Amino acid sequence: MKGHSTTWLLRRLAYGLEVRGDGFDLHLPDTARSLGLGERMGKNSPFRRALQRLCTFDVARPHGPGGLAVRHRIPPLPLRHLSRLPASLQASHRRWLAEQRLSEPEQTRRRARRLAAGLAAAGRGREEIERQLHAWHFHPAVAFRVAEDVSDRRAQPGSSSWPAGVRPQ
Predict the structure, then answer these.
(1) Neighbours of 17 (CB within 10 A)
(2) CA-based diameter of the chain, in Å?
């Protein structure tokens, strides 16, 4: 999706649905102001464009008079959008889709490993990485193992301090 405003709007809608699963009323001007999009509600206003992008990317659709149906999970990128991306982003999307087919514990381990690699790249030590993973509610065993693995890899001669796939140019 294009734009940070669309992401923040989606998060706001997801939170509202988490609290009220049967739906809720959304006061548009208040929501627009809370997202920093001003009070204008015209068809070309930043808030209306954010709503339209949710529909363009099949995350939401009109529902009845004045309603909006919002997905609980973001679907894979539609082919019509995927085909417009550069080859590197298409490959990244394919990897992401493959990861979504992994078991929940394996997805959790991979997510923890990516976060830990980022912390290590920022110069954090093993204990600090483990503590931060605990704070982010990863299981203690996962936090311990991932922090240990990332720290061991960083300590190896010739290893980069950058996480896999990230190289300064």
Answers:
(1) 15
(2) 64
Please report the DSSP string for 53-88 in residue order.
HHHHTTSEEE-STT-EEE-SSPPPPPHHHHTTS-HH
Please, which residues have CB within 8 angstroms of residue 133's CB and are 6 or more apart in sequence?
A: 112, 115, 116, 142, 143, 146, 147
| For range 22-36, the mean pLDDT | 89
Q: How many residues does the chain have?
A: 169
What whole-number distance in Å separates Cα of residue 100 and Cα of residue 66? Answer: 34
Distance of CA 157 to the CA centre of its chain: 33
Q: Three-state SS for 51?
A: helix
pLDDT in tens, 81-126: 889 999 999 998 888 888 888 999 999 999 999 999 999 999 999 9
Domain ranges of the chain: 4-70, 76-101, 102-155
Residue 101 is encoded by which pair of tokens? 């087919």
Pairwise CA distance, residues 122 & 153, whole Å: 15
**Nearest alpha-carbon partner for 71 in 59, 85, 53:** 59
Q: What is d(CA 155, CA 89) in angstroms, rounded to the nearest whole number? A: 31
Burial class of residue 16 (count of CB atoms within 10 Å of its CB; 0-12, 13-18, 19+): middle
